[in-house]
Amino acid sequence: MNQKDMLVGLLAQAASGGSDIVTLRAIVEEASELGAQRMLVLVGLDDETAPGDLSELRELLRAWRDAKTSARNAAVGWAVRGLLALLLVGLAVRLGATDLLQ
User: What angle do CA 18, 11, 8 make, to 5 degrees?
Assistant: First the structure.
């Protein structure tokens, strides 16, 4: 018996004899499982290669996050070095070290 048949049977049972909590829970569980399987089909993750695909996507996402962190750290490093260079040039001008360049 597949899940659709199980869900139809549970709904018929609930309609004919009233619905107790066990029947309602079974209906919700079967409907949830059927909906999850339908979603996997819609996104193309219903075949035997799906676990490998998800693993590759996780690795790709991890690599993207690492690259983003590295780029941010490099940008901050360059900005700090630039500000320090400007500070040194400002100190040199302020202390009159530009006379030494002439």
Answer: 155
pTM above 0.70, yes or no: no
The separation between the first and the last C-alpha atoms of the chain, rounded to the nearest angstrom, is: 94
Contact 3, 26 (CB under 8 A): no
Q: Tell me the per-residue pLDDT of 54-68, one tens digit each, with 9 for 90 and over.
A: 999 999 999 999 999
CA distance 20 to 33: 20
Q: Which residue in this structure is represented by tokens 């004919």?
A: 16
Estimate the share of the chain in helix, then strand, then coil, as percent rounded to the nearest 5: 85, 0, 15
Where are the chain's structural domains? 1-46, 50-102
Helices (H) and strands (E) in the chain, counts: 3, 0
Tens of pLDDT along 70-95?
A: 999 999 999 999 999 999 999 988 88
Identity of residue 72: R
